[in-house]
Specification:
Blueprint lengths: L1 H4 L7 H19 L3 H19 L3 H16 L4 H8 L3 H23 L4 E5 L6 E5 L4 E5 L6 E5 L1
Antiparallel strand pairs: 1-2, 3-4
């Protein structure tokens, strides 16, 4: 599959939203028993699949950038589209995130006997504190939230 998708656009934000929209339109068409709505849903899904298989990456990238810029102006939709983060940039980012998580897990495993790890309730930053010190006051270096905990 990787060889087949080389040089093709793949699933970007617009393609994913077209797939979701097609499914929603199909559900509405079948619930309301409106057959032409189901045909529109199939057309939207097919266009989305063809976009994903397209080898004209520059044109698809321009379409996607215009869609992302336009959807950013719509309340609610902009955040949803930004959270999808499809495309090649997101794939490399997820690989970097995986490598960072792997290094963090390795470090946490190595220090498990001497260090306690906790998550900041404010920003989610992982904090390390020495074990066995009793009740301590911890300040998050990222958001400067203060909390008391047992180590």
């Amino acid at each position: 599959m990787n060889d087949f998708m080389k040089g093709r656009n793949g699933a970007d934000e617009l393609t994913i939203v077209m797939g979701f929209a097609g499914i929603v339109i199909a559900m509405i068409g079948s619930i309301a028993r409106i057959q032409w709505l189901s045909w529109i849903a199939i057309a939207v899904i097919v266009i989305g699949v063809l976009r994903g298989l397209s080898k004209n990456i520059d044109a698809r990238r321009k379409e996607n950038e215009a869609f992302v810029a336009g959807s950013a102006k719509v309340p609610g939709l902009g955040k949803f589209v930004a959270s999808l983060g499809g495309g090649a940039a997101a794939a490399s980012t997820s690989k970097e995130d995986f490598e960072r998580a792997k290094r963090t897990a390795k470090k946490m495993w190595k220090g498990r006997k001497t260090t306690a790890y906790l998550k900041c309730p404010n920003c989610g930053q992982i904090l390390s504190v020495p074990k066995g010190k009793g009740k301590i006051r911890v300040t998050c270096p990222k958001c400067h939230a203060k909390m008391e905990t047992r180590s």
